[in-house]
């Protein structure tokens, strides 16, 4: 890490002070500039003068010192030079966290001011001299309730495979805030993130007034995304709406090339309204006069609202059918679950239109003029796009962790995590369907058949590409006891009374049942922005577990019909001190003693690291055990699990 940092700083100094540049570093930055120079454009901004200099000290973190008009970028470089990269990065995250805290405490200075949200966004862009340059970006803007992240990810992969330099802005992140900003399919590097981050931060701080306070977190990240995409000179920017559409920070985009609206459902009702029509109206807010838009099949109440909004703005709105799997020419969508065919169909239409409207379709694909066939680049994109925490299967081998294809994971692991950050009624149903199909392979009984050489072999029946197939396998695999475990948490603004029954009934209708349910608090919180290397808090004594206990009571009520009024009085609410004992895994419901607050089929564990350790110990101690753990209810929980098992 350290030598890389020295190189980088040398490179930057070279860029600024005219010292010959290290060509080696050029590949790290891969910056293309219109001036033919190879330093980040952020560093040639002539307007970026600052009257304060950023100073970093180990004890005090970052602070400002008055200076006589030094270049803010020089101050950033001094700062980066003074502190190890990891400290600089943590300081940036701390600065970001301060934006959440201000917002959370309802500091009117931060969230209010004289101007509306979108006016302020325009003013931030003006402060950073980005207004015109953002107008020059060729944007795909995507709103919707479910599938935005997946649709944007498919679009990014398709257009990158078609030869374009892509910028992708999605939310939220799972492990590290840099996941939100992908350049050519890769998270932005720490060094680049820091350069753009401090450049924006310093300038906005410098212009902070009562009427134009520092932006709340999502507004800042949106501004930062524009800064990054402009400076990185991407050919296409794919921008996912944060929440809603009409009043979302991303809606400063005035003239996208094309807009998309994914599947609509009931989510964020506190902000967007209590009916699907009201929600649709917010999402339709991204439509722009005469700019083409696409959506997927919607319930009629939502579709009517979308069409009405489209008519008013003379938007040609087309409804896209889910992608036909035959169009994939035998390949598989890289994102699993039936719902992804709807997202993929939308992405294909958005990309085609983007290519047509930018004059690239004919140039690139004029030979592929058969309408029914997707160009090769599209197929490559659809079969390789990746986004974590959406129908993701991770095989944990305790000491090392490997990403494997679903088929391999299903037949080779002892502790398998099925990760999906579903947290709305529609998505939890999609997740339950996916999980039920994904675990199928392990649940088939072995059959004995004669091979052509008349030796008896074990044949495992597995689910592959939507078809039952037969595979040779090891007899020990068959002797394993498979248990399905639910690892769940959701935010208190969600309604677990809808989510948990929907999950249980959808799984049950496919014959999938959970042996145990574990409720655990997430590590990440909204008021702290962390990275993959941030410290995982070890103090569990002060954790308030009352939400997790209420989830457990609900679970016991819906799955085992236990009277929750009784439990209300008997359940110990002040904390679960340890992980469950090992026998817990093998107990059945008859061992429940609700009067003592003990349940044989569910548990509250006070921390995620403890939970993962407990699961690992269970499979280590019993070689014939296979645990299939569905982690869902919250993208935060999914991100936390990925973070803990990767350490
Ligand atoms: N088309 C769809 N229909 C129903 N559920 C979906 C669909 N696409 C994705 N999901 C579910 O929603 C979850 C989140 O997917 P994705 O990130 O693509 O959507 P999103 O709209 O960005 O969600 P969020 O607002 O939570 O970030 C997935 O894990 C999956 O459970």
Automatic annotation (TrEMBL):
Pathway annotation: Cofactor biosynthesis; tetrahydrofolylpolyglutamate biosynthesis
Transmembrane segments: none
Assigned keywords, A-Z: ATP-binding, Ligase, Magnesium, Metal-binding, Nucleotide-binding, One-carbon metabolism
Name of the top EC class for this enzyme: ligase
Molecular function in Gene Ontology: ATP binding; metal ion binding; tetrahydrofolylpolyglutamate synthase activity
EC code: 6.3.2.17
Source species, domain of life: Eukaryota
Gene Ontology cellular component list: cytosol; mitochondrion
BP GO terms, sorted: one-carbon metabolic process
Organism: Populus euphratica
Family statement: Belongs to the folylpolyglutamate synthase family.
PROSITE patterns the UniProt entry points to: FOLYLPOLYGLU_SYNT_2
PANTHER family on file: FOLYLPOLYGLUTAMATE SYNTHASE, MITOCHONDRIAL, FOLYLPOLYGLUTAMATE SYNTHASE-RELATED
Cofactors that this protein relies on: a monovalent cation
Protein name: Folylpolyglutamate synthase
Gene designation: LOC105131734
Reactions listed under catalytic activity: (6S)-5,6,7,8-tetrahydrofolyl-(gamma-L-Glu)(n) + L-glutamate + ATP = (6S)-5,6,7,8-tetrahydrofolyl-(gamma-L-Glu)(n+1) + ADP + phosphate + H(+)
Lineage start: Eukaryota, Viridiplantae, Streptophyta, Embryophyta, Tracheophyta
């Amino acid at each position: 890490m350290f030598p890389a940092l020295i190189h980088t700083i040398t490179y930057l100094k070279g860029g600024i002070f005219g010292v010959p540049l290290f060509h080696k570093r050029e590949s790290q930055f891969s910056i293309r500039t219109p001036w033919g120079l190879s330093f980040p454009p952020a560093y040639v901004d002539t307007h970026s003068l600052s009257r304060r200099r950023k100073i970093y000290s180990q004890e005090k973190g970052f602070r400002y010192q008055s200076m006589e008009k030094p270049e803010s970028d020089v101050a950033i470089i001094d700062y980066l030079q003074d502190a190890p990269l990891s400290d600089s990065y943590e300081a940036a995250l701390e600065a970001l966290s301060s934006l959440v805290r201000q917002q959370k405490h309802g500091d009117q200075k931060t969230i209010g001011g004289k101007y509306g949200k979108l006016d302020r966004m325009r003013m931030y862009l003006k402060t950073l001299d980005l207004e015109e340059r953002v107008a020059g970006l060729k944007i795909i803007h995507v709103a919707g309730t479910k599938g935005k992240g997946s649709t944007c990810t498919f679009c990014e992969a398709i257009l990158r495979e078609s030869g374009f330099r892509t910028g992708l802005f999605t939310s939220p992140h799972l492990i590290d805030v840099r996941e939100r900003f992908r350049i050519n399919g890769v998270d932005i590097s720490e060094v680049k993130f820091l350069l753009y981050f401090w450049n924006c931060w310093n300038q906005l701080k410098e212009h902070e007034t009562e009427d134009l306070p520092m932006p709340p977190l999502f507004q800042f990240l949106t501004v930062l995304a524009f800064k990054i995409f402009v400076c990185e000179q991407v050919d296409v920017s794919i921008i996912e709406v944060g929440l809603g559409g009409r009043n979302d920070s991303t809606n400063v985009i005035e003239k996208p090339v094309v807009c998309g609206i994914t599947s609509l459902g009931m989510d964020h009702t506190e902000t967007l309204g209590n009916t699907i029509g009201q929600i649709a109206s917010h999402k339709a807010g991204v439509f722009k006069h005469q700019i083409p838009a696409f959506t997927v099949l919607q319930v009629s109440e939502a579709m009517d609202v979308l069409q009405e909004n489209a008519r008013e703005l003379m938007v040609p709105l087309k409804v896209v059918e889910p992608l036909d799997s035959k169009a994939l020419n035998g390949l598989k969508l890289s994102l699993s679950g039936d719902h992804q065919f709807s997202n993929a169909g939308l992405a294909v239409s958005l990309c085609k239109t983007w290519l047509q409207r930018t004059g690239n379709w004919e140039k690139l694909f004029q030979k592929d003029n058969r309408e029914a066939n997707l160009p090769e680049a599209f197929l490559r994109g659809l079969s390789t796009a990746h986004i974590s925490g959406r129908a993701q299967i991770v095989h944990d081998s305790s000491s090392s962790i490997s990403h494997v294809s679903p088929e391999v994971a299903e037949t080779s692991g002892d502790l398998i995590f099925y990760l999906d950050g579903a947290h709305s009624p529609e998505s939890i149903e999609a997740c339950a369907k996916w999980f039920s199909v994904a675990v199928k392979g392990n649940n088939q009984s072995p059959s004995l058949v004669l091979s052509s050489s008349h030796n008896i072999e074990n044949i495992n029946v597995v689910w592959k590409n939507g078809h039952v197939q037969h595979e040779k396998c090891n007899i020990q695999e068959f002797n394993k006891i498979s248990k399905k475990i639910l690892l769940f948490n959701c935010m208190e603004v969600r309604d677990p009374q809808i989510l948990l029954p929907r999950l249980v009934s959808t799984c049950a209708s496919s014959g999938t049942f959970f042996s145990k349910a574990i409720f655990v608090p997430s590590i990440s919180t909204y008021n702290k922005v962390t990275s993959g290397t941030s410290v995982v808090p070890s103090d569990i004594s002060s954790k308030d577990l009352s939400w997790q206990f209420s989830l457990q009571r609900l679970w016991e009520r819906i799955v085992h019909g236990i009277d929750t009024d009784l439990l209300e009085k008997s359940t110990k609410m002040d904390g679960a001190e340890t992980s469950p004992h090992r026998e817990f895994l093998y107990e059945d419901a008859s061992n429940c003693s609700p009067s003592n607050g003990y349940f044989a089929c569910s548990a509250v564990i006070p921390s995620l690291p403890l939970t993962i350790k407990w699961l690992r110990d269970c499979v280590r101690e019993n070689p014939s055990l296979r645990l299939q753990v569905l982690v869902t209810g919250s993208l935060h929980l999914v991100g936390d699990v990925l973070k803990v098992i990767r350490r």
